[in-house]
């Protein structure tokens, strides 16, 4: 392994068995692990008996911490950037560090692995050949509707992340902006209670008015003009793989 390197390391989104051998080797060999949440990453490192100093790097402190990380790399240290779950930079901290490393001519490589959007897409039953990932919508209603409206006429399958605190409001706005399109909602992917809900946006909206909300959700919505039909089904917790 090269000594001076920024490694972007993908980590499991729920099931620790999804981590790769290469990710584990990288985490064992770098000088520092740069973590979105040191407590959550600490659980991962402890599970695999990895003992490395961590540096907190999250949205709230990234401007302050960024110069230190670049300085460590310039001093010859190797860093592994990880987020709470999934691939660094995908709706998580990472972009600013990557840009700064590129500007400083620091070598960067990615250790590919889990990310929530691809499993949700392929399990949705919606077209997978062309899709647009939009990440987390804005929290405020007016901004969220403007955000959704950008893709009103897009023919591509749309993928969004949403928290349990705003899922119902998101479905209200998605139905208002896109009309009653086929959609799917994934929850607890790779975990014991993994569930995929499928149906029209109106059916899903009605279901989640009473459904207990927990964890983060991936919402997949058919693009404009999709000719398929939505089946109002869900993969039950008993059927999901853990």
Written account of the structure:
The protein is α/β, with parallel strands linked by helices and 242 residues long. The chain has 2 domains: 5-111, Cobalt-precorrin-4 Transmethylase, domain 1; 117-235, 2-Layer Sandwich (Methyltransferase, Cobalt-precorrin-4 Transmethylase, Domain 2). The protein is 32% helix and 21% strand. It has 8 helices and 11 strands. The strands form 2 sheets. Strands 6-7-10-8-9-11 form a 6-stranded mixed β-sheet. Helix 6 (141-149) links the parallel strand 6 (131-135) and strand 7. The radius of gyration is 19 Å and the shape is elongated.
State the shape.
elongated
- Strand coverage percent: 15-25%
**What is the string of helix and strand elements?**
EHEHEHEHEHEHEHEEHEE
CATH class of the largest domain: Alpha Beta
Quantity of strands, as a count = 11
In order across it, which strands form the biggest sheet? 6-7-10-8-9-11
Helix percent reads: 25-40%
Number of helices: 8
Main β-sheet, in a few words? 6 strands, mixed
What's the architecture of the largest domain, going by CATH? 2-Layer Sandwich
**Count of structural domains:** 2
**From the alpha-carbon coordinates, what is the Rg to the nearest angstrom?**
19 Å
Structural class comes to alpha/beta
User: In CATH terms, what is the fold-level topology of the largest domain?
Assistant: Methyltransferase, Cobalt-precorrin-4 Transmethylase, Domain 2
CATH superfamily of the largest domain: Tetrapyrrole methylase, C-terminal domain
Distance between the termini: 33 Å
Q: Poorly predicted ranges (pLDDT <50, ≥5 residues)?
A: 236-242
- Kindly report the average pLDDT value: 93
